Amino acid sequence: MSAWSALFCSIVLIRCFLHAWLSIRDRAKHLKEMYKEVGKRVWAVYRAENVVVMKEKISELRRWAKDNVSGVVLEKVNKLCSRCRDWSTIYENEGCARTSNGLDRMMRCMDDYFEQGQSFHGSEESAKLRCRSWGLLYNYWDWCPKSVQDNDGVRCPAERLNKKRYDDDWLKNLLIATSMQKQNLQQKTLPQKMG
After folding, report:
1. Which residues of 68-101 are buried (b: 16+ CB within 10 A; e: fewer)?
2. Does pTM surpass 0.90?
3. How far apart, in whole angstroms, are the C-alpha atoms of residue 114 and residue 103?
4. Which 8-state DSSP code applies to residue 88?
5. Which of 45, 55, 127, 171 has the maximal Cβ count within 10 Å?
C-alpha cells in the first residue's frame, strides 16, 4: 500500500475483501458445518448495499463469532471487523474494485515474466527495457475467449484503448502499431523545407 501511495499521490486504496475472507477460510476449514455459516456471514458484509448496512452486518458478525467460534478463527474474524473503516471507503468510491483479483491476475503474469528472465540481473537500463517490453507485450496479447466476449469482441487492452485492430494476428497488430508510432515520431522530427 505504501508503494502505491508513493507512486500515485492521489490514489484511493481499497483493501481487498477477498484476502480478508481467505485468511479466515484457511483457518476455518476444519469447522465443517460452522465453516459454511462463517462464510455466509462474512459475505453478507461484502454484499451490504451501503455503509449503514455494512456496519450492522459487521456488528452482527462480531457478536455471532464471539459466541460461536474461538481461537485463530475468532481472531481473524475480529481483524476483519476491526477494518470497518477500510471497507467503508468502498461506498465512497462508486464503481471501484472491491477485490484485487484483476490486479493479482496481471501481477502473477508479470511476476512469471520477470522470474523467467532472472529478475533484474544486469544494468538498470536493461531492467527498464524488460519492464517496458512486458508492458508492450501485455497490451497486445489476445485475451482469453471469455474476456473477448465480455468486451464485445475487443481482443486486447491496446485495441480497447485505440478502438482499432490493424490485423487479426496479435504480433502483426503489435508490429504495425509500433511501426506507425515510429513513423509518426520521424515525421514530427523531419526538418521543414524552407520556401
Report:
1. ebeeebbebbeebbeeeeebeebeeeeeeeebee
2. no
3. 16
4. H
5. 45
